[in-house]
Specification:
Helices cover 45% and strands 18% of the residues. By secondary structure, the protein is α/β, with parallel strands linked by helices. Strand 6, helix 6 and strand 7 (183-186) form a beta-alpha-beta unit. Helix 2 (45-61) packs across helix 9. The radius of gyration is 23 Å and the shape is globular.
Length: 326
């Protein structure tokens, strides 16, 4: 055998021996805990959904799924951390309508691309948000509140977690649809906004239902409308925006799972399967129902379509309301 022939055979053997290694590595995934980045502080709805999912996913992956809260910038810092992580399946993240909908629409310089920098895995849950007013506001229904606002443009205030936040953008959309003018008071986070809403410093706010529900139940805040496809079981007497005539506001916030772009398909498949199995467990279903969560499990392709729809929707709203953060 010639030297050239021997070298060719050795090269072929090496390539054949290396070819299965990538597949083997993927088939053995995961070899260590998986980090799930939540782009908001602990205690909020995104965090609740993430911790519930992580707890149930771990046994199906065979490794612990560890939560890392990385808040800031309305979710941009955490989303950017996921986008720039190694695409090996050991860092994944929660995507929301803020990180993958309103933020790309309102931030002039976002550090990530909501489509190109991520590999969608699956949507998980949709959780309603609720529009609430302080009891001092003389309106028992949304119709009455709209009448008050129309009679005194700019008099009534609403709190949001910050300029360009999902709460801000959604209420700008509502004001446009209802033909009213409220005074926007931005805060540095939902916690501060909620504190002042409870104290009556601001008249109204919108926030995710799970975090607002206790204050509605005790009468500290009055719920006037729910942003969701149907009424929340925990607030059966509160109508949806759609029921009130605002069909464009029929979808609540969703929380899904994404990985960095370039994550191997075999790894994405394992994550997708583990997430779907987790969502089928009785405990997950029970706890999801307790926060009025609407199951949203779907394929990566379907989730990608939902992300694109959110981007288009909030771009239209932000352009119309002239919301732009430099």
């Amino acid at each position: 055998m010639t030297t050239f022939a021997r070298r060719s055979l050795l090269a072929l053997a090496a390539s054949l021996s290396l070819a299965p290694l990538g597949a083997l590595a993927n088939s053995d995934y995961p070899q260590k805990p998986v980090k799930l980045i939540v782009p908001f502080a602990a205690g909020g709805s995104t965090d609740m959904v993430a911790r519930l999912l992580a707890d149930k996913m771990g046994p199906f992956l065979g490794k612990t799924v560890v939560i890392e809260n990385r808040g800031g910038g309305g979710g941009t810092l955490g989303a950017d951390a996921v986008a720039k992580a190694a695409p090996d399946g050991y860092t994944i993240g929660m995507a929301t309508q803020s990180t993958h909908g309103s933020n790309p629409a309102v931030y002039a310089k976002l550090p990530y691309d909501a489509v190109k920098d991520f590999a969608p895995i699956t949507n998980v849950l949709a959780v309603p948000s609720v529009f609430v007013v302080h009891p001092s506001v003389p309106a028992k229904t949304m119709k009455e509140f709209i009448a008050l606002a129309k009679a005194a443009p700019g008099k009534y205030t609403f709190a949001s977690p910050g300029n360009g936040s999902l709460g801000h953008v959604n209420i700008e959309n509502f004001m446009d649809l209802a033909g009213i003018e409220l005074l926007h008071i931005p805060y540095k986070g939902a916690g501060q906004a909620s504190t002042d809403a409870l104290a009556g410093v601001v008249n109204a706010m919108t926030d995710n239902l799970p975090s607002t529900l206790p204050n509605v139940k005790t009468g500290k805040l009055r719920a006037l409308a729910v942003l969701a496809p149907q009424r929340a079981a925990v607030l059966p007497d509160v109508p949806t925006y759609k029921e009130l005539g605002f069909a464009e506001m029929a979808e609540g916030g969703w929380f899904g799972l994404v990985a960095p772009a370039g994550t191997p398909p075999a790894v994405l498949k394992k994550l997708h399967e583990a997430a779907h199995k987790a969502m089928q467990t009785p405990d997950f279903k029970e706890k999801a129902a307790s926060i009025s969560g609407i199951p949203m499990a779907n394929s990566p392709e379907q989730f990608a379509t939902q992300i694109k729809a959110a981007l288009d929707k909030y771009q239209r709203i932000a352009t119309k309301a002239k919301i732009k953060i430099e």
